[in-house]
Write a structure and sequence with these properties.
The chain is an alpha/beta fold. The protein is built from twelve helices and 13 strands. The chain has two domains: 129 residues, Enolase-like, domain 1 (2-Layer Sandwich), CATH 3.30.390; 225 residues, Alpha-Beta Barrel (TIM Barrel), CATH 3.20.20.120. 33% of the residues lie in helices and 21% in strands. A seven-stranded parallel β-sheet has the order 5-6-7-8-9-10-11. The site of 2-succinylbenzoate (OSB) has 12 residues, from loops.
């Protein structure tokens, strides 16, 4: 495929409800949408960087800068035989995986469209098992004003058919909350996400939740500290999952070798795209780690990519992939719905990402657009 033209949209959408984590609150969610034009086809990508650098160092503005001034110039006019050929072109830029992933997603979309297969089918080619046609999903519930409010919010999602709930926690909003939720929902698949809010000295607090039959606790310690997670893991009975720390295949290898986690949350944005996400899937599967696909409050474009990835055989735990109505109404694509009977979302089957972009809505939420030609 020849990369002929790229359009970059900086969009801003209002979340259906504010999303509070240990690192801050998101209400108005900006992101970048990238359209890559190649030989009559258009591939879409989403850069999931957030407005502020609370989750990782990238922001919408740094990603715009890195894409505009370095990554897009490096790929314009280039001819790729396969999606993995993109990686060496991006390698001169250190880091910035979220910016890189937007290009990577668009290239995978075009590659699948060229072959007339869905992205899930293209990604699943190396495996004996075909891609799943529905993937298990759950909801990530932000920090609420009270325990009572949290239980009400969970009740709402359970009534909608979600079978797995992830609760955001931070010091002071943790043990009591998790105990109350477990008591209210004895059989619910329940997990916690601390977004790096604790230190090793907090191990006794985390141990107090060992008897709550939690699916896992996600990223309790520093965002860049795999070593200390390796020290914490044997102190806990709850399985330990890494999110923020796994920024590349090399970091996944390190986590495996240090036995720093039981489970990896694979976010294509955080690792620089779908090529690396699949490599981490393969590594985790071989090492016997639990795997699932995480989320970053994506639009429908990102969500289509998450669903295609989650269709791979090693992703056996429910993903942070919820129905469109949990994020943006309306969204910039046709909506995704929950299959309530089994807490799944159907994987798009049309060629490429298989999403329909709503041009009117994309235009309505665009703050800035730039086009780049070879
Ligand atoms: O830590 O998993 C996280 C959203 C933004 C940044 C970080 C995280 C999250 C979520 C939301 O938990 C997952 C979703 O997209 O529903
Ligand atoms: Mg997380």
């Amino acid at each position: 495929m020849k990369i002929e033209k790229i359009d970059l949209y900086h969009i801003s959408q209002q979340l259906v409800s504010p999303f509070r984590t240990s690192f801050g609150v998101q209400e108005q969610r900006d992101c970048l949408i990238l359209a890559l034009h190649s030989e009559g086809l258009t591939g879409w990508g989403e850069c999931v960087a957030t407005n502020d650098p609370g989750y990782c160092y990238e922001t919408v503005q740094t990603a715009r800068h890195i894409l505009t001034d370095f990554l897009i110039p490096a790929v314009l006019g280039q001819q790729l035989a396969k999606p993995a050929d993109l990686l060496p072109l991006l390698a001169p830029v250190r880091g910035h995986p979220l910016a890189k992933a937007a290009l990577d997603q668009a290239v995978w979309d075009v590659a699948a469209q060229r072959e007339g297969v869905s992205l899930a089918q293209l990604l699943a080619r190396p495996y004996a098992e075909g891609p799943r046609d529905r993937v298990k999903v759950g909801v990530s519930v932000g920090i609420q004003p009270s325990i009572k409010a949290t239980i009400q919010v969970i009740e709402g999602y359970v009534a909608q058919g979600y079978g797995r709930i992830k609760l955001k926690i931070k010091p002071g909003i943790d043990v009591e909350l998790a105990q109350a939720v477990r008591q209210a929902f004895p059989d619910l698949l329940l997990m916690l996400d601390a977004n790096s809010a604790y230190t090793l000295a907090d191990a006794p607090t985390l141990q107090r939740m060992d008897d709550l039959d939690l699916l896992m606790i996600e990223q309790p310690l520093a965002y860049d500290d795999i070593h200390q997670h390796g020290q914490l893991r044997p102190l806990l009975q709850t399985p330990l999952c890494l999110d923020e720390s796994i920024t590349s295949l090399a970091q996944a290898e390190l986590a495996r070798d240090l036995q720093a986690c039981d489970i990896i949350n694979v976010k294509p944005g955080r690792v620089g795209g779908w090529t690396v996400a699949r490599q981490i899937h393969d590594l985790g599967r071989k090492a016997g780690l639990g795997l699932w696909v995480g989320g970053m409050l994506e639009t429908g474009i990102g969500r289509a990519g998450q669903l295609a990835l989650a269709a791979l055989p090693g992703f056996t735990l429910p993903g942070d992939i919820s129905a469109t109505e949990r994020y943006y109404v309306p969204d910039i694509t046709a909506p995704f719905y929950l299959n309530r009977e089994d807490s799944t979302i159907s994987v798009p089957a049309d060629p490429g990402l298989g999403v329909e972009v709503d041009w009117g809505q994309l235009t309505a939420v665009t703050r800035h657009k730039a086009s780049f030609r070879a």
